[in-house]
């Protein structure tokens, strides 16, 4: 009888341990699940934001390139010249082929 | 014993529980996957979004890196009614604030914007369903897009106003307006795809066009992207940028000269092409009448055609350059060979069937050396030079100079012209070919043929694009390319001799009374003119095509220039129109090109 009681006690203790370990595992599983889900959920928003920002930067880059192209045109240079009243300065270029008395020949 | 019994009872209970649980799970799976499969499929598919990512068409630049054509980003704006209603329902923003904030930026009144929304939501036509999304503004500028993208809700100034989306488009801009219009070409739009129409835009369309990208995402029930279902974005790539050999300042000068020349000679059209004969780079290419590619206001469709390349013509006596070069190269004549011992009477009947062949002034001439025949552009002399050549040799040289074959210039629409099959040549053909008639060329072919003289007998492929910079930064440089397989059409010595004959012609063509041109005699230039009657279906008309070709013979060999005047008033000889335009243009560009004096 005492042997049976002893075995019963051992079984109960084992049963209790098993029960709590199962509970712990289930709880752990849920926590891990919640953690992963929240992590993935946050990351997807972050990835979305990065994608959005990247596309916006690309657009801004293309807008800037097109503004540079627009600025670097003769029409725009004329507008700038008119705005700041810039005038073309006459430059007489010294031609080495004219010989050593080039300054004199220009003067003539 | 007791333990075993109790244990097996518990295990049995758990097994039964698990069995039923499994049964419920299997039943649920079957229900979801079979009974409701199509519903779930629809929901899932509805949460997959893919959108094209567009980029811009490549730009075109002049030789100094300044812009000739570029694409300006624009944005089409769409309202998304489901989002607008949902956001209002959740109390995040109101329709009223959306309308009031958006309308002034897109240059509408709030009332007008409301009206647009109503029209799409409750269409008056009962057959038209209400739209979930609809356009509210087209072609918005980058500034407008930025303002709209940064609008915040009244309730929370950290939250962006939502309910609208943009489609990225572009507008092609030509900042120099009319400048180089025929060479640049145009673009057109078809179903959001921009393609080139004529000129460099069409010839280089494949390189200029951007590569579209793609973004695919799958959202969950609350509208957030599912990370595990993320697909890498296919990035769009901007079209390649083209760097041309066009000298913008030179082009401007040439276009001004051409316009005034065409108006002065009351011609139908005119063309000026300037090329570097050493490498085939086109420095300027003007054709008039031109158009403004930004406005496209010309009603006459002909104006949009670059007839300098698309409509071949007889170049007239300019062809004598090819005849004399062939005869000298074959050592049949030298510049001093007397062609007709007894001279001629101004006209000569060389067959019974054909009309007599005459010189332009029909005056009798004494015996002349070949160089003088050339200088005086004597048709009878040249018929006798042509007659000395074997048909096959003459054909070989004409083909070597590129007659009847496209030059491959990188602009759309080049016509190969026409050279009859040598097997069918008769004496009339030989006569006509000897003085530049009977075969047809486009202006680039005429320029390319004669360019062998300043370039020591080698014709280089005319080209406009020098460098391509791809969207990913890869650079492709185009090096000069000889057009003929054997490379040399004529020997260097022949080219030198013909060049000298053409220089004499140049000096002779500037008359003593033309004191305003006297300074131009100080340049080592070779030149030849050509006038050809224009034929129609019934025969030759009184209209002419007048061509002048000249080049720098200094050691630098800086340029070759073709001037063509189509149908000048009165059908006058090239001496009175294309020659004047050539000399005026040369006077205007010589300092810019730094042509050395003799």
Keyphrases for this structure?
heterodimer; A: 108 residues; mainly alpha; 80% helix; disordered C terminus; B: 598 residues; alpha+beta; 7-stranded mixed β-sheet; 20% strand
Write up this protein.
The complex is a heterodimer of chains A (108) and B (598). Chain A is an all-alpha fold and 108 residues long. Chain A is 80% helix and 0% strand. Chain A has 3 helices and no strands. Chain A has helices spanning 2-71, 74-83, 102-107. The longest helix of chain A is centred in the middle third of the chain and has 70 residues, at 2-71. Chain B has 598 residues and is an alpha+beta fold. Chain B has 19 helices and 18 strands. Chain B has helices at residues 2-35, 37-46, 81-89, 95-105, 110-121, 142-149, 181-184, 199-203, 205-208, 248-264, 307-310, 320-329, 370-375, 379-388, 391-400, 427-434, 443-450, 492-509, 578-589; strands spanning 48-53, 60-61, 67-80, 133-140, 164-173, 186-190, 193-197, 213-218, 241-244, 269-275, 282-288, 347-348, 357-358, 465-469, 475-477, 525-536, 539-552, 560-566. Chain B is elongated, with a radius of gyration of 36 Å. The N and C termini of chain B lie far apart (128 Å).
- Please estimate the helix content of chain A: over 70%
**Biggest contact:** A-B, 28 and 38 residues
Q: How is the main sheet of chain A built?
A: none
pLDDT average of chain B, as an integer? Answer: 91
Q: What is the average of the pLDDT values of chain A?
A: 79
Q: Give a count of the beta strands of chain A, DSSP E runs of length 2 or more.
A: 0
Q: What's the total helix number of chain A?
A: 3
Structural Rg of chain B: 36 Å
What overall geometry of chain A do the principal axes of the alpha carbons give? Answer: rod-shaped
What proportion of the residues of chain B form beta strands (DSSP E)?
Answer: 15-25%
Quickly count the helices of chain B: 19
Number of strands of chain B: 18
Element order of chain A: H for helix, E for strand: HHH
Q: Using the CA coordinates, give the radius of gyration of chain A.
A: 43 Å
């Amino acid at each position: 009888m005492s042997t049976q009681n002893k075995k019963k006690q051992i079984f109960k203790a084992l049963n209790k341990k098993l029960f709590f370990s199962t509970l712990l595992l289930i709880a752990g599983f849920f926590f891990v699940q919640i953690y992963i889900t929240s992590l993935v959920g946050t990351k997807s928003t972050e990835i979305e934001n990065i994608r959005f920002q990247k596309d916006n930067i690309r657009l801004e880059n293309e807008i800037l390139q097109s503004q540079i192209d627009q600025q670097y045109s003769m029409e725009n240079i004329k507008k700038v010249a008119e705005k700041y009243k810039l005038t073309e300065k006459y430059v007489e270029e010294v031609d080495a082929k004219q010989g050593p008395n080039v300054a004199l020949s220009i003067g003539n | 014993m007791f333990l075993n019994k109790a244990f097996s009872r518990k295990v049995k209970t758990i097994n039964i529980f698990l069995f039923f649980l499994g049964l419920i799970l299997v039943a649920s799976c079957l229900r979801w996957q079979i009974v409701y499969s199509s519903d779930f499929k629809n929901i899932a598919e509805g949460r997959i979004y893919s959108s094209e990512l567009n980029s811009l068409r490549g730009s075109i630049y002049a030789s100094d890196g300044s812009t000739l054509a570029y694409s300006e980003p624009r944005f089409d704006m769409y309202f998304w009614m489901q989002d607008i209603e949902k956001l209002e329902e959740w109390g995040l923003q109101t329709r009223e604030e959306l309308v009031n904030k958006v309308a002034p930026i897109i240059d509408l009144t709030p009332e007008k914007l409301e009206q647009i929304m109503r029209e799409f939501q409750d269409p008056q036509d009962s057959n038209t369903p209400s739209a979930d999304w609809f356009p509210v503004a087209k072609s918005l500028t980058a500034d407008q897009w930025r303002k709209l993208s940064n609008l915040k809700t009244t309730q929370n100034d950290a939250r962006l106003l939502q309910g609208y989306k943009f489609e990225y488009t572009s507008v092609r801009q030509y900042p120099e307006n009319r400048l180089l219009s025929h060479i640049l070409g145009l673009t057109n739009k078809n179903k959001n795809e921009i393609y080139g129409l004529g000129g460099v835009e069409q010839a280089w369309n494949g390189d200029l066009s951007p590569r579209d990208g793609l973004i695919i995402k799958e959202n969950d029930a609350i509208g957030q992207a599912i990370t595990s279902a993320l697909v890498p974005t296919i990035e769009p790539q901007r079209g390649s940028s083209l760097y041309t050999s066009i000298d913008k300042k030179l082009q401007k000068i040439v276009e001004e000269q051409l316009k005034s020349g065409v108006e002065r000679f009351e011609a139908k059209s005119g063309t000026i092409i300037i090329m570097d004969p050493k490498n085939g780079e086109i420095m300027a290419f003007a054709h008039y009448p031109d158009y403004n590619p930004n406005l496209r206001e010309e009603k006459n469709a002909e104006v949009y055609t670059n007839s300098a390349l698309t409509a071949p013509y007889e170049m007239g006596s300019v062809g004598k350059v090819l005849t004399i070069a062939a005869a000298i190269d074959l050592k049949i004549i030298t510049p001093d060979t007397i062609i007709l011992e007894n001279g001629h009477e101004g006209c000569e009947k060389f067959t019974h069937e054909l009309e007599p062949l005459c010189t332009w002034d029909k005056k009798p001439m004494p015996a002349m050396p070949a160089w003088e025949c050339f200088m005086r552009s004597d048709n009878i002399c040249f018929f006798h030079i042509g007659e000395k050549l074997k048909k096959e040799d003459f054909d070989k040289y004409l083909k070597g100079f590129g007659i009847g074959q496209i030059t491959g210039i990188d602009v759309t629409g080049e016509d190969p012209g026409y050279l009859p099959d040598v097997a069918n040549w008769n004496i009339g053909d030989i006569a006509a070919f000897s003085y530049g008639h009977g075969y047809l060329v486009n202006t680039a072919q005429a320029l390319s043929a004669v360019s062998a003289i300043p370039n020591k007998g080698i014709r280089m492929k005319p080209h406009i694009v020098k460098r391509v910079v791809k969207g990913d930064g890869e650079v492709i440089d185009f090096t000069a390319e000889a057009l003929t397989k054997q490379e040399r059409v004529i020997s260097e010595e022949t080219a030198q001799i013909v060049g000298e004959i053409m220089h004499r012609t140049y000096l002779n063509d500037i008359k003593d009374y033309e004191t305003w041109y006297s300074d131009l005699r100080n340049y080592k230039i070779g030149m030849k003119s050509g006038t050809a009657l224009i034929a129609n279906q019934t025969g030759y008309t009184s209209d002419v095509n007048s061509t002048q070709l000249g080049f720098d013979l200094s050691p630098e060999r800086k340029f070759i220039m073709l001037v063509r005047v189509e149908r000048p008033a009165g059908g006058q000889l090239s001496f009175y129109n294309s020659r004047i335009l050539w000399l005026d243009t040369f006077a205007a560009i010589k300092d810019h090109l730094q042509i050395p004096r003799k």
